[in-house]
Design a protein that fits this description.
It is a single chain. By secondary structure, the chain is an alpha+beta fold. It has 2 domains: about 170 residues, no CATH class; about 120 residues, no CATH class. Helix content is about 45%, strand content about 15%. It has 9 helices and 10 strands. Strands 1-2-3-4 form a 4-stranded antiparallel beta sheet. A hairpin with a 2-residue loop joins strand 7 and strand 8. The longest helix has about 35 residues. The two termini are about 25 Å apart.
Length: about 325
C-alpha cells in the first residue's frame, strides 16, 4: 500500500494499543514504525530486477520483525524512560504495527514475503489497489481525532477505534467482492469460449467496485473488466498476443526466470526496437504497464541475453484513469 496509508494504519494501531497510557507518543511511534519496513526500497540489491523482486522480502517478514521488536522497544524506553511501566504494551504495539503493515501489503496484487526465509513466495490476496481512499480515510479521521481532541474523556481514542473497525470491515468486503467477481469471471469466460491456464483478478485503481481480469492462455492473454454496477454478470474485454517464443533462447537467463517466478506467470513478452521486453501484467493495463524490463536483444537468428534494465516509458498516461472511471459506470467503455 502507499506510504500515507501505512503511516495512518501504524498511527491508528499505535493509538488503539497504548494511546490511553502514553498519549500522542503512541501515534508518533505508530506512524514511524508503520513506515519502517518500506525503507528497504533505499537498499540497492544488485540490479533493477533484484530491486523489484526482493522488495518486501526480509523487511516484511513476520519472523524478522518479531526479532526487531525488542530492539525498537528498547529504543522507545531509552527515549521515554517515564513509560517503562508500560513495557509490555509497548512491545504489543510495536509488533502489531509491524504485523498489520505487512499483512495489509498482502492484500495488494504484488503481495509480501511474510514468511521469509521459510517460504519465499509472496503471499498475495489481491483485493485492494495500492491506493484506496475508502480504506485510508477512516484511519486518517480517527488519527486526527485522537490528536486534536481532549484525552480526558477518550473521545478521540474511541473515534480512532471506530476508524480502525471501518477500515477492517472494508478489507472484509474486498475479500467477499473478490470471491464473487472471480465466480462471475469464470462463468463469463466459459460462456465466451475463452480458454485459459490461470486467472488473475484485481481491483481497478482507487476502488473495489470495478475489477480487472487477466486470463493467461498459450499464445497470449485476455484482459477484461467487470463492475458491480454493470447490471449483468458478464466480463467485457479483448485478447492480446504475447511473444513467448522469444524467451526460448533466454530460458537460462536469471532475470527471465526470476520475473517468470515473481509474476506467477502473468507477464507479456514483446519485441521493441530489437529489445526483448517482459512486462508485468499485474500493475497497469494494456499499453501502459508500470514494470517492464529488457532481458534480451534480437541477434539473428535468436535473441541473446543482456544485462537486465528497467524500461523507461516517460510520463504515465493519467488520462486513462478517466476511462477507468467511465468503465465503472458503462460496460461499453474499454479503458
Amino acid at each position: 500500500m502507499d506510504s500515507l496509508t501505512q503511516l495512518a494504519l501504524g498511527a491508528a494501531v499505535g493509538e488503539a494499543s497504548i494511546g490511553r497510557q502514553v498519549g500522542n507518543k503512541a501515534i508518533l511511534w505508530g506512524a514511524v514504525l508503520g513506515t519502517l519496513p518500506d525503507l528497504d526500497v533505499f537498499i540497492p540489491l544488485g540490479g533493477p530486477v533484484e530491486d523489484f523482486t526482493y522488495h518486501r522480502s526480509f523487511s516484511h517478514s513476520l519472523f524478522v520483525l518479531a526479532l526487531l521488536t525488542p530492539l525498537m522497544v528498547w529504543l522507545i524506553l531509552k527515549l521515554h524512560p517515564q513509560t517503562r511501566e508500560h513495557r509490555g504494551r509497548w512491545a504489543l504495539m510495536v509488533y502489531l504495527v509491524f504485523a498489520t503493515h505487512v499483512l495489509l501489503d498482502s492484500f495488494t496484487v504484488y503481495g509480501t514475503q511474510i514468511f521469509w526465509p521459510i517460504i519465499m513466495t509472496p503471499q498475495s490476496w489481491s483485493t485492494l489497489f495500492i491506493i484506496d481512499p475508502s480504506y485510508t480515510l477512516p484511519l486518517l479521521v480517527g488519527v486526527i481525532a485522537a490528536l486534536v481532541m481532549s484525552r480526558r474523556h477518550h473521545r478521540g481514542h474511541l473515534i480512532n477505534t471506530v476508524g480502525l473497525a471501518l477500515s477492517t470491515l472494508y478489507l472484509a468486503w474486498s475479500l467477499g467482492a473478490k470471491f464473487y467477481v472471480e465466480s462471475v469471471a469464470r462463468d463469463s469466460l466459459a460462456r465466451q469460449g475463452i480458454e485459459y491456464q490461470r486467472l488473475l483478478s484485481t481491483p481497478a485503481p482507487f476502488n473495489t467496485l470495478l475489477w480487472r481480469f487477466v486470463a493467461m492462455g498459450e499464445d497470449g492473454y485476455f484482459e477484461g473488466y467487470y463492475s458491480f454496477l454493470d447490471g449483468y454478470p458478464e466480463v467485457s474485454g479483448q485478447h492480446h498476443n504475447s511473444r513467448v517464443e522469444l524467451l526460448e533462447s533466454l530460458a537460462g537467463h536469471w532475470p527471465v526466470a526470476r520475473l517468470q517466478w515473481f509474476t506467477h506467470g502473468f507477464y507479456k513478452v514483446s519485441e521493441e526496437e530489437d529489445a526483448v521486453v517482459i512486462s508485468d501484467l499485474r500493475m497497469g493495463l494494456e499499453g501502459d504497464y508500470v514494470f517492464r524490463f529488457q532481458v534480451g536483444e534480437m541477434n539473428n537468428p535468436h535473441p541473446r541475453p543482456v544485462t537486465a534494465r528497467r524500461m523507461q516509458d516517460g510520463p504515465r498516461n493519467t488520462g486513462r484513469l478517466a476511462r477507468v472511471w467511465d468503465r465503472l459506470w458503462d460496460p461499453g467503455v474499454q479503458p
